[in-house]
Amino acid sequence: VRAPAFMDTCRRRYGDMFTVKLAHEGTWVFVCHPDAVKQVFTSDPNVLHAGEANVILLPVLGRNSVLLLDGKPHMAQRKLMLPPFHGERMQRYEELIGEIAETEIESWPAGSPLQLHRRMQAVTLEVIMRAVFGVRDADRLSQLRDGIRTLLDYSTNPRAMLLLIALGPERLTAKGLLDPVLKPVDELIFDEIRSRRSAPDLAERDDILSLLVQARHEDGSEMSEQELRDELMTLLVAGHETTATALAWAMERLARHPGALDRLREEVDEGEDEYLDAVVKETLRLRPVVQIVVRKLKQPMEIGGRLLPAGASVVPSIYLVHRREDVYPEPRRFRPERFLEQPAGTYTWIPFGGGVRRCLGASFALFEMKTVLAAIVSSLEVRPSDGRSERPVRRAITFAPDRGAEVTVERVARPVEVAA
Ligand code: HEM
């Protein structure tokens, strides 16, 4: 829970690179100098394994997941998945995401405290089910929503975490201990995959699953049902809670910075999105929802001027890089303007990690955040229900606002247009 404070203390005491020995995990070497980060992100992925470091996710994601693979199998899977997530495609989801956000916002009660993190989870889950899975049928959507909620609640509860640590991911999978919560969701997903394969309008559909169904391996073969299932589960787990948390932080910060909120609303009303982009970047800088990424060394390697042994993990600290005073003056201040003055650097703004493991959904997440934030600020006034800033607390792999991003909203008063 105290990981950020721990990283701050180590950095103050030991500088830009420090080693921590963790029970069960071995040696972790944290790095936060941009040169060392660049080295980690650009060195041979066969030497720096990321998939191996994610094995804890195996029981839910399955063996084909792009997050768990390394080397050639990882690149093969990643190549299949990159085209559907290409930045330029994202505008196609604008209308859908905007509609989902507006329906959600309309249901918020004015004048009483509201936990936005919960509300953002509802939005990002709906976006994944419809834009990524491409589900349209209302009954199917409602079954999937319930199944996924049960699965995610179960896999983030502390008892399930203990079981996972005690048994290890391989044995947990072999014993099928997650089956009661996993199987119902799997069945719905397999069903969706099968019916999509034979959908008459497959070629015209825009959702990510429809594109993956049509993708081909290098040898011309299609993705198997199990591969498609594992990747859909990966996109759900990697994309739902992260984006919801980032949105919750954006609103937590904006509610406490009325000047930034007003400027954002003005620019959104004028149809501009430069400041909106800066707000999203500054939120992910100051409150990165994922604070570290991990690479396991398969061979000894020199990093940051030191020779590290095989078996050690190298850990670029997103959190520490984002708080470097030499890159970000007054690093603790929320000041979106800094990204209007200076573009985000490849190795100094790293909320999505980097190199051949950089988040596949980065463009999707940024686009979704902008669309949802624009919808909120253009129709609501937002105030914090309690002036104290919220603290980041750990929830599985993310760091979320401790009081759930609690705010009070009012509808923005708009001048009534009078017909001439
Ligand atoms: C604000 C929201 C998000 C944040 C902060 C985030 C962050 C990250 C980070 C830090 C990584 C690991 C990168 C590394 O090891 O270098 C990652 C990987 C990944 N993310 Fe995201 N993510 C977000 C949203 C999404 C979304 C919306 C999707 C898809 C719908 C997604 C899909 C993935 C996938 C598939 C990977 C694995 C890439 C690989 O191993 O090759 N993420 N993400």
Set out the fold topology.
Elements: H1 3-14, E1 17-22, E2 26-31, H2 34-42, E3 48-49, H3 58-61, H4 71-81, H5 94-106, E4 114-115, H6 116-132, H7 138-156, H8 158-167, H9 169-174, H10 179-197, H11 208-214, H12 225-255, H13 258-269, H14 274-286, E5 295-297, E6 301-303, E7 306-308, E8 313-316, H15 318-321, H16 338-341, H17 362-379, E9 380-384, E10 392-395, E11 398-401, E12 406-411
Parallel strand pairs: 2-8
Antiparallel strand pairs: 1-2, 3-5, 4-12, 5-8, 6-7, 9-12, 10-11
Bound molecules: protoporphyrin IX containing FE (HEM).
A few lines on this structure:
This protein is α+β, with helices and mostly antiparallel strands and 420 residues long.
